[in-house]
Amino acid sequence: MLDAQEIAIRFLDTRLQVHPDVVRYIQEQDNPDLIERIIAGVPADTVVVSAKHIPGMNATRDGMRFLTDPTVEIVSGGPGTSGSINSSADYLHYFRDRYSKLGGMIRNRCSSMPIEGLTRSPRYRQEECTVIGMVSEVKTTTNGHRIAEIEDSTANLSVLFRKDRPVFADAERLIPDEVIGVKGKLSTDGRLFFAEQMFRPDIRIDNKPYLSDKPGKAVFISDVHVGSNTFLEDSWLRFVDWIGESGASYLLIAGDLVDGIGVFPGQDQELTIKNIYEQYDAFGEMISGIPHRIKIIVAPGNHDVVRGAEPQPVIPEQFTRKFPENCMLVENPALVNLQGVRVLMYHGRSIDDMIGLIPGASYEQSGKMMEEMLQRRHLAPAYGRRTPIAAGKSDHLIIDPLPEILHTGHVHITGLTQYRGVLGINAGTWQSQTAFQKQMNVNPTPAQAVMVDLQTLVPETFTFL
Question: Was domain 217-463 assigned CATH 3.60.21.50?
């Protein structure tokens, strides 16, 4: 992807300013020649280059056409795009891709040097510099400091985060396999790097979300769990009546459409529908009650009949025979475009891992967990834990490009957050408290839906108990 600062400088060289939306559009097209074509085409009296100077920009955001009537375009995560693992070599490509993309985001904000260049050259000892690496291990010393092992493509480095330094607050939230930049000094013996500042890929503080220029509303839900004896059928019927009168154009469902079969030991004792085909048939009949003018976008979750490893493919055709024609199937995760407003749908299984790794995190803080994803620009930073990941040649879980809305589920607790121009929505569940949740003291927020006005990105929560 082209560097945003370099794009802006090229315009400034010709005494032009450029709107951030145009910069992002050029980055998404990833075509250096486009800059020169735009500069050549603007009128002589132009001061700021905006969307109006680029024919078709508003109609080709994300490289494809979107309409302002109730239609949706899939930017990524369409059927058949998740791919498969062909060999163990894919794992090497996967982590290289993750490091390259996330490291590049950090590198755009600070100059850095390879770890090997730092450790092998004595002239860098005790000189302040920055290195970028992937965290391979994090531990706490007996004195309460934090040490992280990081690595890039050249070498490894031990980084010390002292508890009496401001940077320690960032170090407490370090997750294995995330990519960070660290500014500090190398010890005189070259064995330890003393950190003074840490950088994450994060979102720029001046990020501004795109707002639709046409009326439109989207409704967000998750974790329907059809087939479970705790599914709230009466609440669902109230929801269907409501959405028909709500003025919504889109309904997005972020996984766990059904409760599934054999997902956990003894599950059959908690099912009212014990045949997986019948569960999906029941779900299809339920969403058929929603007016056909509403586009329904459906992604899978860990209870659905697809592989557990992420990215997860779409629900197979043999299970969707009763889904209505206004239903669109996407993978998990998927980036969809609603009237120019981009929504990143992700079921959210990695929240389990993040809660276990970040001090003080809990299931009641689903909004905070979405912020942690956005700061790391990754949906599932920690590899090899409770969230299985299919390591293909590219990392489909990197958050790039930035969405206007991040839509998750999985934890069954509704959560909302606003972080640097991105609206985070965890859409709760349509299942009352299960036996397992009661045992774990998890209190769900069932039968809720979040509706967002696409012209303002203001969310509103509705309850149907």
Answer: yes
